[in-house]
């Protein structure tokens, strides 16, 4: 090993055998070629396990580089012996020299080196400004000390070798870091792209830097097309305003938290213009002095829809339960009189349509029953019927009850609420006592009739609704229009198909049928065995004016069933407050009869209106309706005498 080849140039030395690598290289004795040697030979030769390199230098400056790569290499044992000697004698003053140390070869300590003919060794440290990390050991065949030019040559090799090794180490570290970085970026990219939420990073000018796959799906827009374009097209005005404020706040207050939750109620837009509700967080990071903002956004449209549908079904269930428990049912729409046959005919004609119906008639004539009959016979029968007594709604909450409200719309509005129209969507809404609605509410009702849309109280977004309206009133709307209490345009919209329900006094022929049907119902409910009404009792019933109409008849017969101790209702069980001649024998003014009757009942109840023993219950009226009638008829409680 270590064979040499002479050349014409005395300064040119061929390394004929690089032990362990078998490469043939040329060395020229100047800095440029030394650098080439170090850059090609030395970095490769240094890839040995023991970390030491031996250069054997004879008088003619021929070099043998020994390596541990090949286990059967003759120079291998020699290199190991020298390395071990250096390791054991690291405290020797020669070996502790700053850059190089020279010593003679002792057969006792270095037998293989001695056998190889080496007389002297010089150790040159591989070091940089930062550290020392190895040696280059050169051997000389003669016993003469190394000449200055030889030392300089070897020191130059060592210096260049150190730099090359250092570069290799740095390169190796960079490669490891680059591999780790690539792996980290790949993991991050997989996480980023597999996220179900939209992740969008924008710069301080709100231009998109990152737009992940989920964002592309949510917004129906290609991520590639979204990059470097403004994000504003995807955000509602409220969201844009919030983002502007966030960017300003994040940049001004660097010491505060760098993220925030977006408030509830924000929306965004898909590429096709569809608006949808979202949840979002906004965070801030500064990279190389530049501000970036990341929006993590979730489409909650499906969740909101499901929640709203569940709430709607729950509230509709309340109305359905109320309908099941209703005091009256469709079986009570009984009548063979001419006026009732006309009503039944009108119900049949209008039920199959979606036209608005206005039911008129006195209190207690069964307007709600007629509304249920129309709904049950319509194509909306499998949907909910929502009943609203407009006269019973609190004056300050009428619009909230009908149209719903947004959270924070007014004091006490701690959560969003659906209105009755929204609950009735797809079905029918029955507006009883519609004449009691305030004028501003009438305006909003008119909009629903005209455009089938409305806005919640405190909201700005219009909502479409598909609902059939059946309205009812016991007041003269034409007169209310003249008094300025009711809008004429609303009346025309409601009065598309009017049905007038006759008072009970106009259909006395129906009383026997009604009485028998009612006592059977009350008997079942009360656990009694009452099956009929006596002729005398029927005569008493038919000789009464019935200002409370069918509702008053039902209340009187329920009391009669309770009082009856056998199977037949007798006259004494009929608790009619005022007995009057038959209508055929005397002509009455309706308001006079109504006023006298209400006064009589109020006197009997001690002017108590509400409650179990109140006049409203006896008259079969809603307390609000009774107060309204008292006001209209000029009925006031007399002052006590002093």
Features:
642 residues, alpha/beta, 41% helix, rod-shaped, disordered N terminus
Task: Describe what this molecule looks like in 3D.
- The chain is of the alpha/beta class.
- Helix 1 packs across helix 4 (148-194) and helix 16 packs across helix 18.
- Helix content is 41%, strand content 18%.
- The chain is rod-shaped, with a radius of gyration of 52 Å.
- Strands 8, 9, 10, 11, 12 and 13 form a six-stranded antiparallel beta sheet that branches.
- The longest helix has 47 residues, at 148-194.
- The chain contains 21 helices and 24 strands.
Shape annotation: rod-shaped
- In angstroms, what separates the terminal alpha carbons? 143 Å
- Average pLDDT level: 76
What is the β-strand count?
24
| Low confidence ranges | 1-75, 325-331, 580-586
Q: State the helix count.
A: 21
Structural class: alpha/beta
* β-sheet strand percentage: 15-25%
Gyration radius, to the nearest Å? 52 Å
Largest beta sheet, briefly? 6 strands, antiparallel
Portion in helices = 40-55%
């Amino acid at each position: 090993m270590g064979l040499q080849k002479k050349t014409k140039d005395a300064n040119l030395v061929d390394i004929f055998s690089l032990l362990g690598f078998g490469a043939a290289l040329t060395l020229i004795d100047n800095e440029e070629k030394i650098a080439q040697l170090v850059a090609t030979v030395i970095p490769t030769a240094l890839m040995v396990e023991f970390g030491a390199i031996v250069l054997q230098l004879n008088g003619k400056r021929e070099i043998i580089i020994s390596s541990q790569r090949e286990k059967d290499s003759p120079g291998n044992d020699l290199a190991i012996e020298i390395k071990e000697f250096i390791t054991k004698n690291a405290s020797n003053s020669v070996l502790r020299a700053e850059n190089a140390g020279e010593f003679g070869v002792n057969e006792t300590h270095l037998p293989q080196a001695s056998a190889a003919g080496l007389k002297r060794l010089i150790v040159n440290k591989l070091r940089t400004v930062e550290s020392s990390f190895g040696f280059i050991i050169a051997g000389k065949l003669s016993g003469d000390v190394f000449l200055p030019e030889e030392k300089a040559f070897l020191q130059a090799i060592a210096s260049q070798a150190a730099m090359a090794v250092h570069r290799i180490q740095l390169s190796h570290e960079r490669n490891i870091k680059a591999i780790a970085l690539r792996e980290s970026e790949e993991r991050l990219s997989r996480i980023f792209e597999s996220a179900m939420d939209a992740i969008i990073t924008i710069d301080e000018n709100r231009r998109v830097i990152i737009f992940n796959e989920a964002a592309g799906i949510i917004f129906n827009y290609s991520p590639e097309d979204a990059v470097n374009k403004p994000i504003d097209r995807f955000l509602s005005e409220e969201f844009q305003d919030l983002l502007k404020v966030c960017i300003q706040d994040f940049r001004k207050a660097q010491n505060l938290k760098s993220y925030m939750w977006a408030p509830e109620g924000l929306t965004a837009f898909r590429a096709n213009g569809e608006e949808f509700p979202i949840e979002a967080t906004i965070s801030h990071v500064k990279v190389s002095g530049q501000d970036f903002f990341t929006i993590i956004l979730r489409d909650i449209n499906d969740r909101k829809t499901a929640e709203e549908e569940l709430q709607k079904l729950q509230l509709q269930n309340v109305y359905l339960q109320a309908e099941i428990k209703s005091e009256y049912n469709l079986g009570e729409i009984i009548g063979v009189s001419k006026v009732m046959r006309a009503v039944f005919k009108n119900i049949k004609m209008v039920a199959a349509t979606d036209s608005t119906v206005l039911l008129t008639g006195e209190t207690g004539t069964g307007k709600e029953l007629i509304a249920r009959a129309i709904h049950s016979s319509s194509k909306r029968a499998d949907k909910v019927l929502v009943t609203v007594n407009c006269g019973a709604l609190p004056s300050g909450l009428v619009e909230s009850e009908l149209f719903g409200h947004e959270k924070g719309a007014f004091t006490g509005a701690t959560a969003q609420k659906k209105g009755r129209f929204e609950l009735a969507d797809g079905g029918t809404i029955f507006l009883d006592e519609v004449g009691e609605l305030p004028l501003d509410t009438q305006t909003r009702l008119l909009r629903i009739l005209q455009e089938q849309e409305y806005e919640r109280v405190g909201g700005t977004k219009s909502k479409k609704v598909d609902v059939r309206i059946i309205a009812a009133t016991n007041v003269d709307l034409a007169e209310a229009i003249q008094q300025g209490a009711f809008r004429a345009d609303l009346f025309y919209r409601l009065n598309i198909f009017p049905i007038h329900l006759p008072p009970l006094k106009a259909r006395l022929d129906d009383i026997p049928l009604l009485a028998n049907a009612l006592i059977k119902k009350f008997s079942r409910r009360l656990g009694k065995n009452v099956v009929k009404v006596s002729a005398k009792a029927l005569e008493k019933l038919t000789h009464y004016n019935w200002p409370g109409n069918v509702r008053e008849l039902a209340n009187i017969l329920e009391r009669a069933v309770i009082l009856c101790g056998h199977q037949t209702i007798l006259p004494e069980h009929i608790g009619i407050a005022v007995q009057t001649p038959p209508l055929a024998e005397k002509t009455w003014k309706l308001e006079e009869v109504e006023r006298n009757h209400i006064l009589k009942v109020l006197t009997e109840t001690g002017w108590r209106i509400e409650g179990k023993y109140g006049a409203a219950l006896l008259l079969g009226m809603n307390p609000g309706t009774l107060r309204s009638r008292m006001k209209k008829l000029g009925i006031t409680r007399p002052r006590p005498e002093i």
